[in-house]
Write a structure and sequence with these properties.
single chain; about 550 residues; alpha+beta; D-Maltodextrin-Binding Protein, domain 2; Dipeptide-binding Protein, domain 1; Dipeptide-binding Protein, domain 3; 3 domains; seven-stranded mixed β-sheet; four-stranded mixed β-sheet; 17 helices; globular
């Protein structure tokens, strides 16, 4: 342990206890399931809004991809492959994509899937009344006429042309290299059900809780805060899953999940309902189950709000970063289950730069930078400048790893003269009422980059139109744009290497820890060999029970 961090130890001990809890209430478990059924735990009620055209957060992506399909889907972490699109061609100028859709595909209600469904979905995504439209727009605004449609100046998107029941053409106003890996992957929704529903009324439509897709599983039932039941689609156009029924159980309490796993009432404890770090080895020793460790689901970050004058000085931001000993927190609180990754990209991504600069674990440098910035130690050790104490409030969602990281880091910050108060709120309150409205000093949350197959998705937090830190850097904006217009992967990699260095040195979003995915799985449940949990979920057709 580095000198100056003596206060870390009690917080580490607290963190080890708190890390096994992570929630406040338990839920009863179901009776043991048959071998044709898999029960997967989730910590939140995923099916409250099941329509992916108006609600597509990381916490619902995995189950939506069991019910719906996009034109394409990820083939691992590198490239797209056909899904509802059997094939496609791209123009030499990269401004036109023509998709040949699979014939004979049916919606779960038996109606045929056609190109009209694709056009309809993209126009719902970009509709001015879609509450999620602002988030979607950056992935579709390159389509010719999409911006005008979003602004209400056109009745349809000019660049989307239905050429026949199973053929559709998309024309872009400028090249967009991630189109097949971001835009075309989005789930398609049925026009014959939603076509006559006003976009602003879709949230109240029955489809919101009873989704109908084209995917490998059909929706059976949903009980709020309890479970959602999916059943194998007998008419699925792709590879038929071996598992007949998938049940998503809402179980916020980690102890209830572990108990259910050990009795066989639960078969998969992972993703957003991971096994606590201090229980992971025990799970692996149990006769009932085994532990599965994968490269991290999320990189936990700390955003610094530049509305606060303290953070407008990059020396203070660097000092804050230097003061946090990430290696100590990873080793003592998270048992070493993770990595330190100073990048928005997942370590398995082709765009990831391994040797990005990082200001970490050096309280001496932190103090020197604060001195240089004019912050002098006061009588109680807290630094002062122009009569103002060096203090701020760190906002986190209670019951998450961010709170544990903050508990361990605050004594480190105090050791260099920073007065930091921890504020815990529910995720909904912290994120939607404070963070999105920029009513915070510092905020920590997860960055689920294992779901972000294309690097451009991981950069959303740096888009000046969406950033909640107030960060603006013309060089960053230019490099992001250049990356989306470059198709040669080697050249794109060079662009993103430069970008990661600039982001690291600007230090407005501090990357804290990239925690591993720790799953608990029934011993006889066979899962495909995929590098991340999201890719395992996408490969649900390869899940099976050992006979």
């Amino acid at each position: 342990m580095k000198r100056g961090y003596r206060g870390l130890c009690p917080f580490i001990r607290f963190g080890l206890i708190f890390l096994s809890v992570l929630s406040v209430s338990g839920v009863g478990v179901a009776a043991a399931q048959t071998e044709g059924t898999v029960v997967i735990a989730t910590a939140s009620d995923l099916f409250r809004i099941a329509n992916p055209a108006i609600f597509r957060l990381s916490s619902v992506t995995h189950w939506q991809d069991m019910v719906f399909n996009g034109l394409t889907k990820p083939a691992g972490m590198m490239a797209p492959e056909g899904d509802l699109a059997e094939s496609w061609t791209a123009g030499k100028d990269r401004l036109t994509y023509t998709f040949n859709l699979r014939k004979g595909v049916k919606w779960h209600d038996g109606k045929p899937f056609t190109a009209e469904d694709v056009k309809f979905t993209y126009e719902v995504l970009m509709h001015k009344d879609n509450p999620a439209g602002f988030g979607h727009s950056r992935y579709y605004e390159s389509i010719l006429g999409a911006a005008e449609y979003r602004a209400g100046k056109a009745d349809s998107i000019k660049g989307i042309e239905v050429l026949g029941p199973h053929r559709i053409r998309v024309r872009l106003k400028e090249p967009y290299s991630p189109f097949l890996m971001i835009s075309a992957i989005h789930p398609i929704v049925p026009k014959h059900i939603l076509g006559n529903v006003a976009v602003k009324a879709m949230r109240k439509h029955a489809f919101t809780h009873k989704p109908i897709g084209t995917g490998p599983y059909t929706f059976v039932s949903w009980k709020s805060r309890d479970r959602a039941v999916l059943r194998r689609n007998p008419n699925y156009f792709g590879k038929k899953p071996k598992i007949e029924t998938v049940i998503w159980r809402t179980m916020p309490d980690s102890f209830s999940r572990l108990a259910a796993l050990r009795t066989g009432a639960l078969n998969v404890n992972g993703l957003y309902a991971a096994v606590p770090v201090d229980e992971f080895k025990n799970v692996s020793r149990d006769a009932c189950c085994r532990g599965v460790r994968m490269s991290g689901h999320s990189n936990w970050y700390m955003d610094l709000n530049l509305k606060n004058p303290i953070f407008q000085d990059v020396r203070v931001r660097h000092a804050l970063s230097y003061a946090i000993d990430r290696k100590a927190i990873l080793k003592h609180v998270f048992k070493g289950w993770g990595t330190i990754s100073n990048s928005p990209f997942h370590p398995l991504s082709w765009a990831y730069k391994k040797d990005v600069s990082i200001f970490d674990g050096d309280p001496g440098k932190a103090k020197a930078l604060l001195e240089e910035a004019g912050w002098k130690a006061g009588p109680d050790g807290i630094r002062v400048k122009d009569g103002k104490r060096l203090g701020f409030t760190w906002l986190v969602a209670s019951g998450r790893a961010a709170a544990i990281i903050a508990q361990a880091a605050i004594p480190m910050l105090k050791a260099v003269g920073m007065d930091v108060k921890l504020k815990r709120l529910t995720f909904v309150t912290a994120y939607f009422k404070f963070y999105l409205r920029r009513k915070y000093d510092a905020f920590s949350h997860l960055h689920p980059n294992s779901l972000m197959i294309s690097p451009e998705v991981a950069l959303e937090g740096y888009d000046p139109r969406r950033s909640k830190t107030g960060y603006r850097n013309p060089r960053v904006n230019a490099l992001i744009k250049k990356g989306t217009r470059t198709f040669d992967r080697r050249k794109r990699k060079q662009i993103y290497d430069k970008l990661q260095e600039i982001l690291a040195k600007d230090a407005v979003r501090l990357w804290l820890l990239h925690t591993d995915e720790l799953w608990g799985v029934s011993r006889n449940l066979v899962l495909p060999n995929r590098p991340t949990g999201y890719l395992k979920i996408l490969a649900i057709d390869d899940w099976s029970w050992k006979k």
